[in-house]
Write a structure and sequence with these properties.
The structure is a single chain. By secondary structure, this protein is mainly alpha-helical. The protein has 15 helices and no strands. The protein has helices spanning about 15-25, 40-55, 60-80, 90-100, 110-125, 130-145, 150-165, 170-185, 190-210, 215-235, 240-265, 275-295, 300-320, 330-350, 355-370. α13 (about 300-320) runs antiparallel to α14.
């Protein structure tokens, strides 16, 4: 696996890392967690897993305390392996020296744990998230130096996508794309399931990032980039439902951006109706394929039905050629009928799942346009 180059690695001063570690444990209360491992690196990983479990259970305060503990222990483990053994009595010093003997060289997994803890703290407990992300990036790159593993690319990509939300510079964005393309390139690995989960998670992160953007052209660049990634996954796993929905969502987002330009007061003459129709048609094809795959396995389909119905409504509005708002041509009626079918299926599955705007659409359809 070739590591992408181009990022100027700004090595932070040891004092800065120490300051972050000090900040991470400031005002820390006591939270006892039992960990058992063959060495302190394994125990540290278990501590991180405990923090993540607390976060997943929405116990944010406990998660923060544990993530802080991870950062504190990581900093200490690095320092003692550089000969900086803190003041300790003879028994404590012997324990520290034994831990070094058990694991003299810190593995790449240690640096990933350090990076992940800092990443989560940057999201939930930091007034200066960029500083935490900078050090997290340094630790993740250290891990990648030690082991060219997909997990390293995954963590780096996640850090960079968060950094991109804080720093809109092209360098951060391009660096993310380089790392993520390398991660997508790992998808053909023997450990397909593990790589799939990593790629899909970052693909979703990247897709969600679009919602944080305001510039229309920047949005379109990211959406197109995401679409290419979903395609890369489907080229390897054509039946991957999540990638199929992601691709359809990308096409829908591209259509939405063009529709806004097309329908704006000043009007964008560069936007062609046919281009919007093309994106909507591709979205309909992707959602329809994903829906058939899920229906055959009796898995939940509400989200896809909503997306497909929304796309059909857009298509009905775009293909309508009538000048009179009280009339609809047959092509539009067909798409609107398809949307109605989707929304009624949603109501049959869960009466509370249909958003209000789609309920209004059904009411309008029944009152004014139903054939």
């Amino acid at each position: 696996m070739k590591r992408p180059r181009g990022l100027k690695k700004s090595k932070l001063e040891e004092s800065k890392k120490a300051k972050l570690a000090e900040t991470a444990v400031e005002d820390e209360d006591t939270l006892v967690v039992e960990v058992k491992g063959q060495n302190d690196v394994e125990e540290l990983s278990q501590l991180y897993d405990s923090a993540l479990a607390q976060l997943n259970d929405n116990n944010v305060e406990q998660a923060v305390m544990l993530f802080r503990g991870v950062v504190h222990e990581c900093d200490k483990m690095i320092r003692i392996r550089h000969g900086d053994i803190p003041n300790a009595d003879e028994e404590e010093r012997e324990l520290l020296e034994n831990s070094i003997k058990a694991c003299p060289v810190l593995p790449y997994s240690f640096y990933l744990t350090y990076a992940n803890a800092l990443y989560h703290l940057s999201l939930i407990d930091s007034d200066d998230p960029k500083s935490f992300l900078d050090v997290a990036m340094e630790m993740a790159e250290k891990a990648l130096d030690l082991e060219q593993a997909p997990e390293c690319l995954h963590v780096i990509s996640r850090i960079l996508i968060q950094s991109a939300s804080l720093d809109k510079s092209d360098s951060v964005i391009e660096e993310f794309k380089k790392y993520f393309k390398n991660l997508v390139g790992c998808y053909t690995s023997k450990d397909l399931t593990k790589i799939r989960d990593l790629v899909l998670e970052i693909s979703q992160y990247s897709h969600n990032h679009v919602d944080t953007l305001e510039d229309s052209d920047e949005k379109q660049t990211w959406i197109e980039f995401n679409a290419e990634n979903w395609k890369s996954i489907l080229n390897i796993e054509s039946d991957n439902v999540e990638a199929q929905v992601g691709l359809g969502n990308g096409y829908l987002c591209l259509a939405d951006e063009l529709i806004q330009k097309y329908e704006s007061d000043d009007g964008d003459e560069s936007v062609e109706r046919s281009e919007i129709e093309s994106y909507l048609s591709k979205a309909i094809a992707s959602f329809t394929k994903a829906l058939k795959q899920l229906e055959s396995t009796h898995q939940p389909t509400i989200n896809i039905l909503l997306l497909l119905g929304e796309t059909q409504v857009h298509m009905g509005n775009i293909v309508d050629q009538t000048a009179d708002e009280t009339e609809i041509d047959q092509a539009s009626l067909n798409h609107f009928q398809n949307a109605v079918d989707c929304f009624q299926k949603v109501q049959a599955l869960d009466s509370d799942a249909l958003p209000s705007q789609f309920k209004d659409f059904l009411t309008e359809w029944e009152d004014d346009f139903k054939p």
